[in-house]
Specification:
The complex is a heterodimer of chains A (237) and B (339).
Chain A (H helix, E strand, L loop, with lengths): L3 E10 L2 E11 L4 E5 L6 H8 L7 E6 L2 E2 L5 H7 L1 E4 L11 H8 L6 H14 L1 H4 L11 H14 L4 E5 L7 H18 L2 E5 L3 H7 L2 E6 L2 E7 H6 L1 H8 L2
Parallel strand pairs in A: 3-8, 3-9, 6-7, 7-8
Antiparallel strand pairs in A: 1-2, 1-4, 4-5, 9-10
Helix pairs in contact in A: 3-6, 4-6
Chain B lengths: L2 H22 L2 H26 L7 H21 L5 H26 L4 H21 L1 H4 L5 E2 L15 H25 L1 H11 L1 H6 L4 H27 L1 E2 L6 H15 L3 H24 L4 H26 L3 H9 L8
Helix pairs in contact in B: 1-7, 2-7, 2-10, 2-11, 2-12, 3-4, 3-5, 3-10, 4-10, 7-10, 8-10, 11-12, 11-13, 11-14, 12-13
Classes of the chains: A alpha/beta (237), B mainly alpha (339).
């Protein structure tokens, strides 16, 4: 069973292709991490999956439905939430308003409230800053808020771009542990892009290694961790 | 207490206070109050559009004209058909709003595809082109001469010597309070948050599931509806409509008013509307106190309001970028009107 199925994805910014035929599957309740050096096409992959970019070729199926050509705001409503790198928080809105924004399209107001309370429970730091504007938050709080905003939409698949960027190792660890818990307890699937290969592989079930827009390895996370040759060639540790 | 209920109570309190004021002031001041209330409909809608949704409109004077002409035409048609009563005026004003909503939808659909200077350009074109429409279909709109608007005297139930100006003030204030109540709730609603999200970060808004284009079009429509009501009320006050009264200058004045008042805040729209009435009055007084040749006096009176307004704009932007309402907010301790 697969939740997300990507076949032969080709994406380019104007002329030069960035992804040259990427295949990928994400089963439900699984964390799949996408690894690779700068410029490998990790962020482009996520941006294409959430609809911010249009693929030149290839297919994206989410829960049996094609996502190619579906606008971003529709993709979210289907259950695929994207937390972009360093973005995703509206700086002028308060923490509370940002979280409510995450469920702005949902008809079930009661569940939006519930989801919001759950986010405050997951991130007590946010609960303490409810009335603060997004631009008043620290980098870590902002990342938590972006993640929380995505969770209020009750997604089935979460696309996370570099959640550990600029964060203290302790907070990175907390976020990774949280992802694992959400995955095990709620059946959330995660597609995780990380520079921090060690922490990504420690929490993920599966890993995909991208190099210059191509998949060069796809295996269980444990296997990737143990493959010294691969690590040296592509992951730099 | 819910936000909606609180807004309702505030509106009721304001209505009661304003009612008392209309009895306390002479007819001319009532007329000015009514004019400010009509302007307020437009400035309140404009401040939501420009301040909250981040879309610039240089054409709101033209949208007011749409409302004004629609009210003029329907009032006169109703009168010709022998229909009378206050329900008729309400129907005319509703038609004025409707016409403006349609205009807002058309401009909004174009606007949703445009950003920054391009959007300003399109709305500017609307402001410039719309008065010409009155000449093209001169049979309906009577070119530069415009139309006179039929207005019934105040209801007999109010008494035989009830001043028309007080009645006009009541009409305009009722419209303005309605607009303020609706917008205050709108600003605090999901739609208000969506507007601010779209203004600040379109990508983040889209990722949160907000349809950016639809939100922007809706903002234009709402704002145009308010301006249409303002224009309609203006037609009722002046009992005439002509293209000259809704020129590009009016559009620019409206924009300056909301900026000087405090962009994005309804309280700022109130300050702006008051300025639109007070400043021309003030400059008139100044010119009258000077001994000038008639030609010079006429020239000065025509241009002085614009100069004073421009100067005010510059001073306010330097001294208090938050506008008048920003200054008031800083000077007063926590007010319940705060967002």
């Amino acid at each position: 069973m697969t939740l997300l199925q990507v076949d032969g994805l080709v994406v380019g910014y104007s002329a030069a292709p960035v992804l040259h035929g990427v295949d990928l599957t994400v089963p439900p309740a699984t964390i799949v991490t996408v690894l690779g050096a700068n410029g490998a096409g990790k962020t482009t992959l996520l941006r294409t999956l959430s609809g911010l970019l249009r693929p030149a070729e290839g297919g994206i199926r989410f829960d049996g439905r094609s996502l190619v050509g579906v606008p971003v705001e529709r993709v979210v409503r289907l259950g695929l939430a994207h937390v972009p790198e360093g973005r995703g928080v509206v700086a002028e809105l308060t923490v509370e308003e940002n979280l409510r924004l995450g469920g702005v399209w949902r008809a079930d107001r009661r569940d939006v409230r519930l989801a919001q309370d759950e986010v405050y429970e997951l991130f007590p730091a946010l609960a303490a800053r409810r009335k603060h504007a997004g631009h008043q938050l620290s980098g870590g709080e902002r990342q938590m808020l972006a993640l929380g905003r995505a969770l209020v939409a009750r997604p089935r698949l979460l696309l996370l771009d570099e959640p550990s960027l600029g964060l203290a190792p302790r907070i990175t660890g907390q976020i990774m542990a949280l992802l694992r818990r959400l995955c095990d307890e709620t059946g959330l699937a995660v597609l995780l892009v990380e520079q921090n290969v060690r922490s990504a592989l420690s929490v993920a079930d599966q890993g995909v290694v991208l190099s210059l827009g191509r998949v060069v390895a796809a295996a269980d996370a444990a296997q990737l961790r143990d493959d010294a040759g691969l690590r040296h060639a592509y992951l730099g540790f | 207490m819910t936000t909606g209920l609180r807004h309702l109570l505030w509106t009721a309190a304001a209505a009661a206070a304003l009612l008392a004021v209309t009895y306390a002031i002479p007819p001319f001041r009532n007329y000015q109050l009514a004019t400010a209330a009509a302007y307020l409909c437009a400035t309140a809608g404009l401040t939501v559009l420009v301040g909250l949704s981040g879309q610039l409109s240089l054409g709101h004077g033209a949208v007011m004209a749409v409302g004004a002409y629609a009210v003029a035409l329907s009032q006169n048609r109703f009168a010709d058909a022998g229909l009378t009563g206050n329900g008729v005026l309400a129907a005319s004003l509703a038609l004025g709003v409707l016409a403006a909503l349609v205009a807002g939808l058309i401009v909004g659909l174009a606007a949703a595809r445009l950003r920054g200077p391009y959007l300003a350009g399109v709305t500017l074109a609307v402001a410039v082109a719309l008065p010409a429409v009155t000449t093209v279909w001169a049979g309906v709109f009577h070119s530069d001469q415009g139309l006179s608007v039929y207005l019934e005297p105040p209801p007999a139930g109010l008494g035989y010597d009830f001043p028309l100006e007080r009645w006009q003030a009541w009409l305009a204030l009722a419209g303005a309070l309605l607009v303020m109540l609706l917008l205050a709730n709108l600003v605090r609603s999901r739609f208000g948050r969506s507007l601010r999200a779209v203004r600040d970060d379109e990508v983040a808004a889209r990722l949160a599931g907000i349809d950016v284009a639809r939100t922007q079009v809706l903002a234009f429509v709402v704002s145009a509806g308010c301006a249409g009501l303002g224009g309609g009320l203006m037609a009722v006050l002046t009992q005439s409509v002509s293209p000259g009264a809704y020129s590009l200058t009016l559009s620019l004045f409206l924009l300056m008013a909301v900026v000087v008042g405090g962009l994005g805040r309804l309280a700022g729209a109130v300050w702006g509307a008051l300025l639109l009435v007070v400043l021309p009055d003030l400059t008139h007084t100044i010119v009258a106190s000077l001994t000038l040749s008639p030609a010079a006096a006429q020239r000065l009176e025509g241009n002085l309001p614009l100069a004073v307004f421009g100067l005010t704009l510059i001073v306010v932007m330097i001294a208090a970028p938050g506008g008048i309402s920003g200054v008031v907010r800083r000077l007063t301790p926590a007010s319940p009107l705060r967002r």
